[in-house]
Design a protein that fits this description.
The structure is a single chain. By secondary structure, the chain is mainly alpha-helical. The chain has a domain of 76 residues. The chain is 84% helix and 0% strand. The protein has five helices and no strands. The radius of gyration is 26 Å and the shape is flat. The relative contact order is 0.07.
Length: 134
């Protein structure tokens, strides 16, 4: 057999392995992102906690309704805590930016303006999947 043919087969197998690895990596990354988003979502936590509770404790229908109300209240409280934490964190970041800007020379401020976060980057609750309460 021709040695060139063996190299061709080996390169094709190597390319197949590389493509398979890349596709697997992209699929794994997408699945990991979805799991992180789901874990950070208080509503999915509510559903998961209720399923686990029902499977483990087997509550009556009356208990299930009351406990679901408790869970919904807890989710609302968690959303409020998260929104407050984001708001307070935003204030800390902007306080830091203001203090740093006071100490810089004019030519340094131009460079600092390029690296500091924009108002939208810091205050966007949409990126963090938190709803603002009216």
């Amino acid at each position: 057999m021709n040695p060139f043919r063996y190299w061709k087969i080996a390169l094709c197998l190597l390319a197949l392995a590389g493509v398979s690895g890349l596709v697997g990596g992209f699929i794994g990354l997408r699945m990991a992102k979805q799991r992180l988003e789901q874990r950070d979502n208080p509503e999915s936590w509510n559903e998961s906690a209720m399923r686990t509770f029902e499977r483990t404790v087997n509550p009556t229908a009356e208990q299930r309704v009351k406990i679901q109300g408790f869970l919904e209240q807890a989710v609302d409280d968690l959303k409020a805590i998260r929104a407050d934490a984001i708001s307070r964190s935003t204030n800390v970041v902007w306080k830091l930016v203001g203090e740093v800007e006071k100490e810089l020379a004019p030519e340094q401020k131009a460079a600092f303006d390029k690296m500091k976060p924009s108002q939208q980057d810091v205050t966007s609750l949409e990126v963090l999947r938190v709803e603002k309460k009216p």
